[in-house]
Specification:
Organism: Candidatus Enterocloster excrementipullorum
Structural class: mainly alpha
Mean pLDDT: 92
Distance between the termini: 24 Å
Family: Belongs to the 4-toluene sulfonate uptake permease (TSUP) (TC 2.A.102) family.
Subcellular location: Cell membrane; Membrane
Largest sheet: none
Strand content: under 5%
Oligomer: single chain
Main location: membrane
Low-confidence stretches: none
Transmembrane segments: 6-31, 38-63, 75-96, 108-129, 141-174, 210-232, 244-261
Number of helices: 10
């Protein structure tokens, strides 16, 4: 890879992590499709690098929030959701490996991921625009929380996006959280799923080939983005976060349509 690509990957991880920390989407939902669009690395390598970047960002954001006493994480629901997401993270990674082994043409794997992400992102966008008209729930049962977290973890790990927009929709609908509270709880859930996904990749020996310096740069970008995103999140109103989230979803939909065309072409 050329030097300018290293710089570009760092900028993408940094910018995506800022947006991810503000909106609670982890950043992977931006990093994964954007890097796929460049087509310079394999789908599995991009998934792995994206997951590691998201893990670094969420680690910083969650720990910093707890240490500063500014955390809005609801441990009664967040921890069961996180446990479910951890189990789902392993299941999702296994599903990705199974899908990869099914296709000799790895571009097909990328096409399937892009199509799934397109559907999820489009559904999220529609829900976010209409959410004021939707009657929400307040799920408190721990077993139900684990089951919901399991589904989130599977999507998160299988798509290599960390957690993304689907987390927010679930937290809005099932737990009646406001935007900023949902953002912090989403990052907490993402942290669980990404830790187990990474451990599963290491234990099963399915780590793809990549430059260690690229991983370091993207991890640094993720942490710095998380720092900037936390500061910005505290200074803006929830309605501004909602508008940014809608804008990001629209952009991601466009990128995924392009990626499907590229992979299928």
């Amino acid at each position: 890879m050329n030097t300018y690509l290293y710089i570009l990957f760092w900028l993408i991880s940094f910018g995506a992590s800022i947006a991810g920390a503000i909106c609670g989407i982890g950043g992977g939902v931006i990093i994964k499709p954007v890097l796929d669009a460049f087509g310079v690395l394999s789908v599995s390598t991009i998934s792995f690098l994206s997951s590691c970047t998201v893990l670094c960002m969420t680690c910083y954001s969650v720990i910093k929030g707890k240490m500063s006493g500014e955390s809005l994480i609801d441990m009664r629901t967040g921890t069961p959701l996180g446990i479910g997401a951890a189990i789902g993270g392993v299941a999702g990674k296994s599903m990705f490996q199974a899908l990869s082994s099914m296709f000799a043409d790895k571009d097909m794997v990328g096409a399937v991921q892009a199509a799934c992400l397109l559907v999820i992102t489009l559904g999220t966008l529609i829900y976010t625009i209409k959410k004021d008209q939707v009657k929400t729930l307040r799920v408190e049962n721990a077993a139900a929380c684990v089951a919901i977290g399991l589904v989130l973890g599977i999507f998160s790990s299988f798509l290599g996006i960390g957690g993304g927009p689907i987390n927010l929709v679930v937290l809005f609908y099932f737990f009646s959280m406001d935007t900023k509270t949902a953002a912090q709880n989403s990052l907490y859930i993402i942290l669980f799923s990404q830790i187990t996904s990474l451990l599963n990749t290491l234990v099963t020996g399915t780590v793809p080939e990549f430059s260690i310096w690229l991983l370091v740069l993207m991890a640094i970008g993720g942490i710095l983005g998380g720092m900037c995103g936390r500061v910005i999140n505290k200074r803006i109103e929830s309605r501004v976060v909602d508008k940014l989230f809608i804008l990001l979803m629209a952009v991601i939909i466009g990128i995924n349509i392009y990626n499907i065309y590229q992979f299928m072409g």
